[in-house]
Design brief:
The structure holds 2 protein chains of 2 kinds. Chain A has 9 helices and 22 strands. Chain A is α+β, with helices and mostly antiparallel strands. Chain A has 2 domains: 234 residues, Rossmann fold (3-Layer(aba) Sandwich), CATH 3.40.50; 108 residues, Nucleic acid-binding proteins (OB fold (Dihydrolipoamide Acetyltransferase, E2P)), CATH 2.40.50. In chain A, α3 crosses α4. The two termini of chain B are 35 Å apart. Chain B is flat. In chain B, strands 1-2 form a two-stranded antiparallel ribbon. Chain B contains 12 helices and 2 strands. The chains are: A alpha+beta, B mainly alpha. Chains A and B meet through β6, α3 and α5 of A and α8 and α9 of B.
């Protein structure tokens, strides 16, 4: 269990990176608080796995330092860092039994045989494989193998951190839920520092205390699920989190008002002079359909009923707007306006959020 | 569902039947035919029944050749398989050096077998060969034409030189197919180098190694050209392996009947051993899966 500090960390897979674009992981300063559960969320190729492999020591960073509890471990090999890591695809030792697989990390560290036996039994129950402990790992199904991989990751109690690299990709949905619950339970019981890489927002939001969103090699926002939802710091966070994602409309901002392609709306807060490309961001949850002359005039192009609510796809002068309407609401032919709740409006300049001044 | 019966479909396999008949069945039957007959030349044959088989089963000459053959195959397997794995483990994984290694390793495999024999025949000569001459000057008694131990060493070293690459290349291919995640997981699990080999690399190479062992066994059991060129089966009969003996019998002595019987038994032995080996290995695989 450890606090993990990253100092000026950056990594490039090229031997001589020249521009910022050559970096898979852009310069990063970050502290992972001891005992917290983090989710590292981002689309494929954004540097999540790179960051994870640097923390576990499988990759040596091009620059910067990694500290565990303020001790520099940058040059330490993986084995000395005492990290557990579970990979996206199952890794099992085919010729061993399930039991030996689970015991492997403990035995390699010279653990006491009776402790190993008891701990393996416990983990076997946790992953729901106590009946198969004496079977050879070869020939098991992919999700059984991945459960073994997870078990091997969890079997050591004294690890500095537990890293998961999209571990539930190959697991079926029902088991996914169950295993994630068990991971949370494990975190609750032992208080390991956990970092969980995923591209699935539901997984990230349900698993973690704090979600770290990565985009194009850098961290764009770190926060609680609520913060990510209400105040996305970057347009990427806005549309990556949420279903559907945030609406972004090009606008000119002047004080408390925005001019969106000819229509003025009230922003609920004042903004100073902003340079660059400015956008208004509103989550579909903070919009409603209207009639008459309120809000923005729209054309509804499609209505999708997803069960608990309706998603209305609309068009406003060539820009798409998604609106969430309550399940019971009739979408009438006269509904040709959309109204934004000022509390849910965020302003972005060059993709980054601009804080409003108190009204 | 009702199946339509169409006997004309048999014609579709006719080309294959004809091909196999001419390439395998008819030549084999010729040998079978010879094996049950005796001849004194002039193309006159007499029925001999199973006489040749009986005779050969009790023939000391055949027993000796078979013994030498088994020892030879076991020795070269015992050297080439571990050595090939060792080389594969130490080959560069990618880049220019990996390609260079692959090309260098392939070279011995590309040389015609009688050329391999000639190379070593000259290489080992005490008067003009680099190896033989050097050893002689160093005071080591080495003469493969007179000393049977030296002849054996030469033939075995030659085979190792010629064929270890094959095992190495197959093992290398097996190693290359192991995903990185396995090595990463092993590091996380703090597995020692030996354990990585024992629990990751060896199991993952099992399939290709089985092929390598099978190929090397069959080829070494049938070896003819190289030892024939180097030692001609001598000194005495010390490097006369089964196929050399067979050729002596068939062409040297023109004993077509016994030679044909010999061929059939030889063929059956290889078939039997390969079958047993293959069955055992695939069953091991299945048993693990349960």
């Amino acid at each position: 269990m450890a606090k993990i500090t990253l100092k000026n960390l950056a990594h490039s897979y090229l031997p001589n990176p020249s521009s910022e674009d050559d970096y898979a992981l852009k310069e990063l300063n970050h502290e992972w608080v001891d005992g917290e559960a983090y989710a590292l969320l981002g689309s494929s190729g954004c540097g999540k796995s790179t960051l994870l492999n640097i923390i576990s020591g499988l990759l040596h960073p091009s620059q910067g330092r990694i500290l565990f509890n303020d001790v520099d471990v940058t040059d330490q090999p993986t084995a000395q860092r005492n990290i557990a890591q579970v990979f996206q695809f199952p890794v099992v030792y085919d010729t061993m039994t399930v039991r030996d697989n689970l015991a492997f990390p403990l035995r390699n560290r010279g653990a006491d045989a009776s402790y190993v036996a008891q701990r393996v039994q416990q983990i076997g129950e946790m992953i729901g494989m106590e009946a198969e402990l004496d079977r050879k790992a070869r020939g098991l199904t992919a999700d059984a193998k991945q459960k073994i991989s997870l078990g091997r990751g969890m079997v050591r109690e004294d690890v500095n951190a537990l890293l998961f690299d999209e571990p539930l990709t190959v697991i079926d949905p029902h088991m996914k839920w169950e295993l994630r619950t068990q991971l949370k339970q494990l975190h609750h019981d032992f208080g390991h520092t956990m970092i969980y890489v995923t591209h699935d927002q539901t997984e990230a939001l349900t698993f973690a205390d704090k979600v770290v969103v990565m985009y194009d090699g850098g961290v764009v926002q770190m926060g609680t699920p609520q913060e990510l939802f209400e105040t996305p710091e970057h347009t990427f966070v806005g549309y990556f989190i949420g279903s559907p994602g945030m609406n972004f409309l090009d606008a000119e901002i002047a004080g408390r008002h925005a001019n969106i392609a000819g229509t003025q709306i009230d922003l609920g807060a004042g903004y100073g002079a902003i340079d660059g490309k400015t956008q208004v961001g509103v989550r579909p949850e903070f919009t409603r359909l209207g009639t008459g002359d309120e809000g923005l005039p729209i054309n509804i192009t499609r209505v999708e009923d997803v069960g608990r609510h309706k998603i209305v796809r609309a068009d406003y002068k060539g820009q798409e707007i998604n609106i969430i309407a309550p399940e019971g609401q009739e979408i009438g032919a006269d509904m040709n306006r959309v109204v934004f709740d000022p509390a849910g409006i965020n302003i972005y300049a060059n993709e980054w959020r601009v804080k409003g001044e108190a009204a | 569902m009702e199946k339509t019966v169409n006997q004309k479909a048999w014609f579709l396999i006719l080309p294959v039947l004809i091909l196999v008949a001419f390439s395998a069945v008819i030549p084999l039957m010729t040998v079978v035919n010879y094996s049950v007959q005796d001849t004194f030349g002039n193309n006159q044959f007499f029925w001999a029944g199973l006489e040749w088989f009986e005779e050969l089963l009790h023939s000391e000459r055949l027993h000796d050749a078979l013994g030498r053959q088994i020892i030879f195959s076991l020795i070269i397997l015992a050297i080439e398989v571990p050595l090939g794995i060792f080389i594969a483990l130490n080959m560069p994984k990618k880049g220019f050096w990996a390609s260079l290694c692959l090309v260098l390793m392939s070279l011995p495999l590309l040389i015609p077998w009688n050329v391999v024999g000639t190379i070593w025949q000259i290489f080992g000569r005490v008067d003009i060969g680099l190896l033989g001459y050097t050893l002689d000057k160093l005071g080591i008694a080495y003469n493969y034409t007179q000393d049977s131990f030296a002849a054996w060493v030469t033939v075995i070293v030659m085979d190792v030189w010629h064929w270890t690459s094959l095992v190495a290349l197959l093992a290398y291919a097996g190693l290359q197919s192991i995903p990185d995640a396995y090595y990463q997981a092993a590091k996380i699990d703090q597995a020692s180098r030996w354990k990585v080999f024992r629990f990751i690399e060896l199991p993952k190479m099992q399939g290709v190694l089985m092929i390598a062992i099978l190929l090397r066994f069959m080829d070494s059991f049938m070896i003819y050209t190289e030892p024939f060129v180097v030692t001609g089966g001598g000194p005495g009969n010390s490097t006369t392996f089964l196929s050399i003996d067979l050729v002596k019998m068939a062409l040297g002595q023109f004993d077509l009947g016994p030679a044909a019987a010999f061929s059939i038994m030889y063929y059956l032995v290889i078939l039997l051993i390969s079958y047993v080996f293959y069955t055992v290995m695939t069953n091991l695989d299945k048993r693990d899966g349960v």
